[in-house]
Specification:
The chain is of the alpha+beta class. The chain has one domain: 2-Layer Sandwich (Alpha-Beta Plaits), CATH 3.30.70. Helices cover 27% and strands 43% of the residues. The chain has a 4-stranded antiparallel β-sheet, with helices on one face.
Length: 81
């Protein structure tokens, strides 16, 4: 199975989506290298950077599922491998 290294950036502006995001990330736990979450209270948002070593389909699926949630924006950057 070929995997790719990617950083999934998640900006959360709707706190109602946090629980589902955490569930989706937990489902991909074997692929997670690291996670950093930053609450930005002044702007009432949270930012998560998630580093993954996963198959391309898994990364795309996770980004899509999270990005479809209300008040959430995602972007993926891939390592040149």
């Amino acid at each position: 199975m070929d995997t790719r290294i990617a950083v999934l950036s998640i900006i959360i502006q709707d706190d109602e989506s946090v629980e589902k995001i955490n569930t989706y990330i937990h489902e991909c736990a074997p692929y997670v290298i690291g996670r950093m979450g930053i609450p930005y209270r002044e702007k009432n948002m949270n930012i998560i950077s998630l580093v993954l070593d996963a198959p391309q389909d898994t990364i795309s699926q996770l980004s899509g599922r999270i990005g479809r949630l209300s008040g959430v924006t995602t972007k993926v950057a891939y390592a040149k491998v």
